[in-house]
Amino acid sequence: MKFHFFDPASDVEVSRRNLPHWEQRDAYYFLTWRTADSIPATVLDQWLRERGQWLTDHGIDPAQEDWQRDLEKLPEAEHREFYRRYTERWHRMLDACHGECVLRDPNVSEIVAENLQHQNGHPYELEAWVVMPNHVHVLVGVPGRGALKTLCRNWKNYTAKRINQRLNRVGQFWQWESFDHLVRSEASLEKFRRYILDNPGKAKLSEGSYRMWSKGQQEPRCAPK
């Protein structure tokens, strides 16, 4: 199946809690979801307040569902400033490895890896993914429109149940909300792929404390510690 890059002229479905979620038909997405303890609540609340103030200062209402569309209309320098201050910072907070980081355990990360690969090729098509100690990045083509939320929810629900069983515990494992980004071009697709593949090195992780896969690779990589 042929997937497409973000088309600003096409219809977009927008939903949100704290983060906006945009969907288009047959599109590529860069997804991130994280363990419930991956970012301390006080740190996350401060990030949200600062991001909201920045948007307000630039004439954008952060309470509106389509605030990201207004962000895209800003001059390139201001758009880059937002990405540097808030998007990059979000990922740095994750890479700081807050929380218990149970996904370091290969027996736990294996559950996520197997679930991602289970239906790869139909209905969705994976480009790359990495299971970090407290979060997961996925680059994927998703068919149809409105399917992204269901797909991500299914991944999270299944793996949370299996991981809790493996660890002999109950309760929330993943944070309810995920971060998703519509991929805009071939260059952007490769940028996200490179980000995924470079992520363990940037976070200074040792072999065996993460799992990683990219299209064309036969098996997920998880060398022994």
UniProtKB/TrEMBL annotation:
Residues of the Transposase IS200-like domain: 24-199
An annotated GO BP: DNA transposition
Transmembrane portions of the chain: none
A Gene Ontology molecular function term of the record: transposase activity
PANTHER family named among the record's database cross-references: REP-ASSOCIATED TYROSINE TRANSPOSASE (PTHR36966)
Protein name: Transposase IS200 like
Originating organism: Prosthecobacter debontii
